[in-house]
Design a protein that fits this description.
The chain has 292 residues and is of the alpha+beta class. The chain folds into two domains: 105 residues, no CATH class; 110 residues. The protein is built from six helices and six strands; from the N terminus they run βββααβββαααα. Helix 5 packs antiparallel against helix 6. The radius of gyration is 56 Å and the shape is rod-shaped. It binds zinc ion (ZN) (2 copies). One zinc ion binds next to helix 2.
Length: 292
């Protein structure tokens, strides 16, 4: 009998069960099906409108008969009403609900319950089971390799993220140092400005006093030249009280300027401390980066 799928000669595994060694399809003859299962077998809707394979037994009798397509266990098998069922590779395992490689043992048990498994089936199933295991092992190795590859990628990504974080921290530190330096420069400018204002105030005060004294002296001289005397009880020109008051104002101003100067120096010192701390941190980060 010839394989309806590829035309090779079918091998008899046991009576009523034939196998194509090329495509691994299986022919179950009607007497075997009657022996092992309640008819119809397999159970499932008949898709009569689709054309099936030619029946190998009808072909052997010189007839051409397309088999019916039956859907069962999510596979489509070919069935000849009078001769049997053709199952492509893997379909018998699906229909019986067993692992691939165990289907012939399962159907033998269905047909000949309690009898020892023939060597032909045991050897074939062993080979298929070994092949299956090998395929699973290969898949496991591939999976492990893939996992390792993904882990490496992940590690590299984490490393890059760490480097970037260090670079960001360093950049932040640099900005802080620049900011502190700018603050210090502004504080120094402000201190210098205050000092200049104070110095100018002192000079102006002295000049004003000198002018007042000069005016007083000139007035005094003019009074003498005219031979006039100032009214009794009143001193000529700018009085001593006025001069003392002016001096008190000038002293107060100088003191205020000195206080302002002290305050600005304190601020400058604080900013320099900040700058020093920020530089220290930057050096530390740069060392850490250099050691990576
Ligand atoms: Zn075949
Ligand atoms: Zn037939």
């Amino acid at each position: 009998m010839l394989c309806p799928r590829c035309g090779d000669l079918l091998d008899t595994v046991i009576d009523g069960i034939l196998e194509c060694t090329r495509c691994q399809g299986i022919w179950l003859a009607q007497p075997a099906i009657v022996r092992g299962f309640a008819l119809p077998w397999p159970v499932g809707p008949n898709t009569w409108w689709r054309r099936g394979l030619p029946c190998p037994e009808c072909a052997g009798e010189g007839l051409t008969s397309e088999m019916q397509l039956v859907q069962s266990a999510q596979v489509t098998v070919d069935r000849c009403q009078g001769h049997g069922v053709w199952l492509d590779h893997g379909e018998l395992a699906r229909v019986l609900g067993v692992q691939k490689g165990e289907e012939l043992a399962a159907i033998f048990r269905a047909l000949y319950a309690g009898q020892p498994l023939p060597d032909a089936i045991a050897a074939r199933d062993q080979i298929l089971a070994t092949r299956l295991r090998e395929a699973e092992d290969r898949a496991a190795v591939r999976e492990a390799e893939e996992q390792r590859r993904l882990a490496l990628i992940e590690a590299e990504r984490a490393h890059q993220a760490e480097l970037q974080a260090a670079r960001d921290a360093e950049e932040k530190q640099r900005i802080e140092v620049r900011h502190a330096e700018e603050q210090r420069r502004l504080a120094a400018i402000e201190a210098e400005r205050v000092r200049e204002v104070a110095a100018r105030a002192v000079v102006r005060e002295a000049r004003d006093n000198r002018r007042a004294l000069l005016r007083e002296a000139e007035q005094h001289q003019r009074d003498e030249e005219r031979g006039t005397q100032p009214p009794s009880g009143r001193e000529p020109g700018v009085s001593r009280e006025t001069l003392e008051r002016n001096a008190a104002i000038a002293r107060k101003r100088v003191r205020l300027c000195e206080e302002q100067l002290l305050e600005d120096r304190a601020k400058l010192a604080s900013t320099e401390r900040d700058l020093s701390i920020a530089r220290g941190q930057l050096r530390k980060l740069e060392d850490e980066l250099a050691n990576r």
